[in-house]
Amino acid sequence: MATFIQTFFATSQANEKILEQDTATVEQMQKVPTDVTEAITDMAQQLTSSNVHLDQIFKQLIDWGLDVGRHILVALAIFIVGRYLVKMVNHLVARFMEKRKIEVSLQTFIKSFVNIMMQVLLIVAVIGALGINTTSFAALLASFGVAIGMALSGNLQNFAGGIVILFLKPYKVGDWIETQGTAGSVVAIQIFHTILLTADGKQIYIPNGALSSGNIINYTQTPTRRIEWVIGVEYDEDMDRVRTIVDGLLKADKRILSDPAPVVYLQEMADSSVNVLARAWVNNDDYWNVRFEINELIYKTFNNEGISFPFPQITVHQA
Predict the structure, then answer these.
(1) pLDDT tens, position by position, 92-104
(2) Residue 101 half-sphere exposure, CB side, CA atoms within 13 Å?
(3) Are residues 264 and 285 in the same domain?
(4) Gyration radius from the chain CA atoms
(5) Taking the CB of the first residue and of the last residue of the chain, which one, N or C, has fewer CB atoms within 10 A?
(6) How many domains does the chain contain in total?
(7) How many CA atoms lie within 13 A of 245 on its CB side?
(8) Do the strands 203-207 and 216-218 form a parallel or antiparallel pair, or are they unpaired?
(9) pLDDT band at 67 (very low <50, low <70, confident <90, very high)
(10) pLDDT band at 152, cuts 50/70/90?
(11) Nearest-CA neighbor of 188 among 109, 116, 101, 115?
(12) Average pLDDT estimate for 267-286
């Protein structure tokens, strides 16, 4: 009996141990799903937070793109309208000066200056419309202008020379001048240059600085000009007869002015000829035609009258 009781208690204790082990296993199995759920929840929260950040980034990019696009459209509109306004202002300035009958030389200078200033204002307006701080840009432009001014000091001198020319008026548009080894008709006086059109159709740009400080011969500023002819004849010709023929040819031409009257002198006894100097005054518009036509007329008349033209010769006496 005692043995049976001992065996029963031993079996009961073993069953209790097995039950305790099963309970612990069940508790561990219950804990595993809880840990997995917490991990999944954390991952979901992280993904949700990442999505929020991406949405914010995309929203900021969209806002920035819209803002930049708006600035670009506004700047483009200002540029298009500004170009039209610049042309309109230039046209109005030109019409105003024409109605006021302002001198053509001053007109070209003012139109060039107004056009450049309007273009600069348009550029500043476009830059401001793009969202760039014009104050800092103006400071940068000022410092840049100082550097450019130092590098382009010659152009500043030309600008000042143009103003001096407009005020002192040594020449104007349409005048025939000779300067810097070039002769031509003044086509335009611009901010930095004066444009000349030569007799053979070439346009020459001469800096205003050189013109304002150099020598200028203006052939148009006075209404009349004097023409000189130097005619060489042989030593055995009758000088009174030569003088009478040349004087008669000059007085017969209606384009030659009678006051002051034309004159004929014996200028020089040169090595191979006696040179006769003839002078006459004509209007500016008749200068070249009279000069060339009288040359031809003297040549034909002398040939008809038997007056010989000399040619260079040397007489050698042999000892």
Answers:
(1) 888 887 777 777 7
(2) 0
(3) yes
(4) 51
(5) C
(6) 2
(7) 21
(8) unpaired
(9) confident
(10) low
(11) 109
(12) 91
